[in-house]
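Tutorial handout. Part one gives the primary structure; part two gives the three-dimensional structure as tokens.
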Amino acid sequence: MTSPLRISFEVACPVEHAFAMWTSRISVWWPPDHTVSGETDLVVVLEAGVGGRIYERTAGGLEHDWGVVTVWEPPSRLSYLWHLGRTEAEGTDVEITFAPEGATATRIDIEHRGWERLGETAGIWRDRNRVGWETLLPHFAVAIGRGEN
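Part two.
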């Protein structure tokens, strides 16, 4: 069994804002180099609620599915089946919790698991996703720091 990825960090904003930025404002901070198309003028959407789709839509209207929301508990918890570039059967599970650290900060804990669905390539995909998270999360932190609404 391939161990889950676990990532924890803090951002300087209330928990409600951190959750909203991750979900309804995802297109503000998600970089084009972490998408299927790589286009700079696309929109990233995370639909609210269990069953909500996560996808990118290009300027030409082409949509690429990335995942589906499995847990929706604003502003404290979000989970989704993540299958960017793969089939749903090959999806991995991402769980994110948002916990207040006083009135002006939020602790975010991410657990990315389910690598066994990828068979013999599980370890390779886990390592690639570790790098992916490391290069993605600074974009989120910068958006929070800029006071994006």
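Part three, for discussion. The mean pLDDT is 95. The CA atoms of residues 25 and 149 lie 8 Å apart.
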